[in-house]
Amino acid sequence: MRIWSIACAVVVLLLLIPTAIEYRLSHRTVPAGVQRGECFTPPAEGENGYDWLIRLGGRVDRSPNAQWVDHAFTRPDVAQGRNLGKYDKLDLIDREHFHPWEMWQNSILAQARTFVWEHWQKPKRAYLTLTLSSVDSTGTSHIFVEPDDTGRWRVYRRYLSQRALVDEPTAYSLVWVRPPAWDKAGIPVSSGQPPQPLTDQLEFHDVCGEDSGAL
């Protein structure tokens, strides 16, 4: 009788699992992370930026339907159903042309790094829009600091321009780095040494611990 009861309980549990999963998916408060399924695929020889993005699980939509509103690119579903009333909000715009060699001497970027880092450290939900212009393009990064539906904190990043919507690999850790030059990997800031947001850079690491971009 006891074995029969256990068997019945197992059957009921197996029947309920798909329903529970379906309920959870239909009641998401934030979208699922943008990430790869495994961590063992090495970079291909000669991997370019697009290949790197796709290998890390990123997505690119070449029909962005972007709208220029209040000096930033947006679209109706940019928040993907999030309740933005729960997020601290900051909108930053660099009205000057942005150049790569200004990445570590730019006060707008320093504000953005500080905002993301402070909310990551607390942790507390945050929504940053960061609009930057180069000599030939303008784009807006929509950056969300938030817990996912399992309670794990992350940084979810979307880049939107007239040309594309890029969902960047979701970051699950942040590291301050001190780049020696714009075209080389960053050197982690020593523990116990306070970062300098004007000259240091925030490096994002994906679910596998790989560098997935920087701010």
Strand percentage? 25-35%
| Uncertain stretches of 5 or more adjacent residues | 6-26
Number of domains: 1
**Globular, elongated, flat, extended or rod-shaped: what is the shape?**
globular
Largest sheet: 6 strands, mixed
Number of helices: 3
Distance between the termini: 62 Å
Structural class: alpha+beta
Which sequence of strands runs across the widest sheet?
A: 1-8-7-6-5-4
The helical percent reads: 10-25%
Radius of gyration: 20 Å
Mean pLDDT, as a whole number?
Answer: 84
**Order of helices and strands, N to C?**
HHEEEEHEEEEEEEE
Please count the beta strands (DSSP E, at least 2 residues each): 12
Gist?
The chain is of the alpha+beta class and 215 residues long. The chain has helices at residues 2-26, 49-55, 107-121; strands spanning 59-61, 67-69, 72-74, 88-97, 126-133, 138-147, 153-161, 165-167, 173-178, 187-188, 201-205, 211-214.
Structure write-up:
The chain has 215 residues and is α+β, with helices and mostly antiparallel strands. The protein has one domain (49-214). The protein is 22% helix and 31% strand. It has 3 helices and 12 strands; from the N terminus they run ααββββαββββββββ. A 6-stranded mixed beta sheet has the order 1-8-7-6-5-4, with helices on one face. β5 (126-133) and β6 (138-147) form a beta hairpin. The chain is globular and about 50 Å long. The N and C termini lie far apart (62 Å). Mean pLDDT is 84; it is low at 6-26.
